[in-house]
Amino acid sequence: RIDRIDRIDRIDRIEEAGLRLAQATRVDAEVDRVQRGGEQAAAMTPFVGPIPAEVLFLDLPLLTGDEIPHAPYVAATGRPWPGRIAVYGAPQDNDYALLETLGEAAIIGVTQTTLGAGPIGIWDRQTALEVTLVSGALSSATPEALLAGANTIAIGSGAVDDWEIVQFKKAVPLSAGRFALSGLLRGQSGSWGTMPQSWLAGANVVMLNAVPTQINLPSASRGTARHFRFGPASQPITDPSYRYESHVFAGIGLRPYPVAHLRAVRTQGGAAVNWIRCTRIDGDIWADGEVPLGEDTEGYILRIAQNGTLKREVTLSSPTWAYSAAILAADVGTGAFDISVAQVSARFGAGPFAKVSVAG
User: What CA–CA distance (Å, rounded) separates 52 from 85?
Assistant: First the structure.
């Protein structure tokens, strides 16, 4: 720059060819003062156009017990992240109302390896699951942190109500965005009752930290189709960057847990059946006596089946049942049969069935 008392010039070009030639442009003194830092110049940020968001809807069981039981979750991500995602909803595909504005990207990815059914209630120290994230990162946690709720993820097929809740102790980076998760706790929050034989590679993974948000839909909307449109909050709902989906939510947070330790012992031609009730509310509080019921009343459905054919169904109010010799002989004779039991909620209906096979 060439400064004189009466003018300021900005040097734009210099040529060296035996003789030095300079090309300059006169600059206003006030502009020069701003560029030198006399005032903060406007920050220039790259333009990011409206980008379609990746959004997942999750109908999940209670994780802490403090959630809205019937309300589903929504998690969004994008690369690059568009800043804020608006989620609109309606009972029909018009007259949409704003439900949520998501200001932070959730940690979402897909599995890269198959995850078979695992043990329940104990550490799975043998299995490792590889996942690739759209954005974000995962880290390891201590066993104490896990038992306090850390490193909780949902693994699902893409259906809103098909999720297993899993926790992992160790996360090892493999490459950019790819991690190996081990030290697993499987089927958490009662999801062991719907755990499939395996999650194939390509299953969805969502980190259940404070980022996924519950949509406070009315409880009466359970079981009916809800319509959603979502996209960058900076754009109107009519913008092509918005996407449309329709889902039916059951309110999995109201679903009873499966019963545990279902047993059937043959007794003088009949069978004695018993099990232990589980609860979806305050079940981890170590105190004397039974865990809280978590439902209005205690109730169960017990089914007897043989070769896939239903032979008998009974409703019970206590975790035990006596299968008399005469009724057993009339139902299944001397052959093998299966006993299935599910706890019942007045608001949800039957939860997942636990099953035990009885040899002939």
Answer: 9
State phi, psi for 75 to the nearest 5 degrees: -130, 140
Could you state, in chain order, the average pLDDT of each consecutive group of 10 residues for the chain (360 residues)? 59 73 70 53 55 88 94 93 93 96 96 96 92 95 94 96 98 96 97 96 97 94 96 93 96 97 95 96 79 93 97 98 97 96 97 96
Q: Which residues pair with 172 in a beta bridge?
A: 180
Give the sheet arrangement for strand 213-214, strand by strand: 54-58, 73-77, 213-214
User: Do residues 54 and 245 make contact, with C-beta atoms less than 8 angstroms apart?
Assistant: no
> What are the angstrom distances between the C-alpha of 285 and each of 100, 272, 280, 350?
33, 30, 12, 24
Give the separation between CA 301 and CA 280, rounded to whole angstroms. Answer: 18
**Which strand (E) or helix (H) includes residue 34?**
helix 29-36
Beta bridge partners of 186: 120
User: Which residue is associated with the tokens 């406007």?
Assistant: 42
Round to whole Å and give the CA distance between 247 and 225.
5
First to last CA, the chain: 99
Estimate the share of the chain in helix, then strand, then coil, as percent rounded to the nearest 5.
Answer: 10, 45, 45
Cα 339 from Cα 304, distance rounded (Å): 5
DSSP 317-333: SSSEEEE-HHHHHHHHT
Token pair in block for residue 286: 């170590």
Q: Give the chain's radius of gyration (CA, Å).
A: 30
- Cross-strand pairs, 202: none
Cβ pair 17, 24 in contact under 8 A: no
Alpha carbons 23 and 15: distance in angstroms, whole number: 9
